Request: fold
Amino acid sequence: MALNDNKYFLPYQTGWLKDESPVKIWEKSRRIGATYVQSYEDVRDCARGAVPAVWFSSADESAAREYIEYCEQWTKLLHIAAQSLGQVVIDSDRNIKTFVIEFSNGTKIHALSSNPRAFRSKGGKVVLDEFAHHEDQDKMWAAARPCITWGYPLRILSTHNGTSCRYYKFVDAIKKGRLDKWSLHTTDIFKAVEDGLVDKILKRKATKAEKDTWLKDQHDNCFDENTWLQEFCCQAVDEASSFLTYEMIDKCELDNILWNEDQLYRSANDLYGGMDIARKKHLSIIWVLEKLETMKFTRHIRKMENTPFHLQREILFKILSAPRMRRFCIDQTGIGMQLAEETQLKFGKYRVEPVTFTAKTKEEMAYILRTNFEDRSVSIPPEYEIREDLHSVRKVTGISGNIRFDVAATERLDSHADRFWALALALYAAHDLHSGPIYATGRKKRESAGMMEGYW
Reply:
């Protein structure tokens, strides 16, 4: 029983098939044919009598059904004597069901949903599909691991689902050399495309432009960077490490709130703004807020990419000329120093405040920004670039205890948290610097020493 590997499988699938390690883990992208090739391996092992049974478990019943359909296709293609028994009840007390294929040599393939109890008292080859998405990975692992005690193979295939799950810990341990007898395969969407995935989809040789367009479509249809990174790029995302979570950002998004420059001039309420300055590598962003009591509404965002400073100055001065612009904080770090100085000279030190980005000022501004998101006292437009830029910032505590704010590494954003810091500057400008505890600053110590005399 053999197939022409090049006809049915792509190189990364063939690599998986040829690896006969006792334990294999596949860190993979979605929809690259991992379950497809795994079903072939399982049919092959049963037909050869290499295992007494295969116990396949996925995150839901539909995935188990898809897997068993693949197995049925392989038995027909390879002319293997086997019959499908359909869905069989293997534990009536616990209502545990499985799809079963029985081979003429007595071996069986069982496809179950993610019920750890189904693995109790079973033996044979174990395949845990989309393991990171099982409801209780610890119980599933505790139930499934003893099945391979007599030397049968174990296969784990999954996309990522955060960094706190058992699947991520397995992958991380292999990469760090702690599970040297386990084999790890990593196939992200870029590797799959390089190996011919788009060619297989189109049923012809795809051009580079077609591959690039296909990848862009997959990315854009994810709508958020975490989905793209975990489901397609084999990168586990720790949502807890994001300074602003998607949930916090989502609750502050509001449609149809942006104004043009003419509307800024007609504002009946006070305006506040911030500008993060760049020239070539990053973006220059101007962010303007309208303040109504405690609420701050985003009214204008101006993105400038590779824009000469004299044009940035012209745009900035026009926005700052709005009659109700009360305070504007501008980044004067590095290349921003001259523009910040010129702007303050033009509009005065009460309207314009240059800000030097230091660890201390960035921390203060970042926490003012986050407080506004926690309180839902700021509104932003529901735009992909803004959402991802705000979410990209991570708070990192160094060994010495110093806090810094880094940007998550990704080539999918056009910004290096420039929108985050422009908004942070605008909220800093709108922040009531006189809020907080009130302290008495009256008499000198010597004059007040006897004020309470006679009251004890």
User: Anything to note?
Assistant: The first strand starts at residue 23 and ends at 28. The CA atoms of residues 199 and 205 lie 5 Å apart. Residues 246-430 form a domain with the Nucleotidyltransferase; domain 5 fold (CATH 3.30.420.240). The longest helix spans residues 61-77.
